[in-house]
Amino acid sequence: MARGGALGATFMVPDEAAQTSMNKAQILAQIDVAMGGHVAEKLIIGNEKISSGCGSDLQGATDLATQAARRFGMFGDKVGYQSTGHD
């Protein structure tokens, strides 16, 4: 349900943002949740009417995936075990 300026919001329970570290399964789960809004729009209103509303969610998923691969070495079997880009 929309509240204020947001068209929708997802909150993780328990609050995983307070954690100091996450394992690979937790990171993949957060990426799945972030992609949910985009997938829901595609299924409900169709591919041609997807809005920009999920833009920040997609950016967050991209940032998290990039960190998992480049900083944390979680996908080393696919992209190599090198930590780069500590920004």
Structure description:
Helix 1 runs antiparallel to helix 2. The chain is elongated, with a radius of gyration of 15 Å. It has a domain of 53 residues. The mean pLDDT is 78. The longest helix is centred in the middle third of the chain and has 22 residues. It is mainly alpha-helical. The protein has three helices and no strands. It starts with 23 loop residues before the first helix and ends in an 8-residue tail after the last helix.
Mean pLDDT: 78
**Helix-strand makeup class:** mainly alpha
Distance between the termini: 35 Å
Shape: elongated
Strand content: under 5%
Task: Give a quick precis of the structure.
This protein is an all-alpha fold and 87 residues long.
Primary descriptors:
87 residues; mainly alpha
Q: Can you lay out the helices and strands and say which pair or pack?
A:
Layout: H1 24-45, H2 55-70, H3 76-79
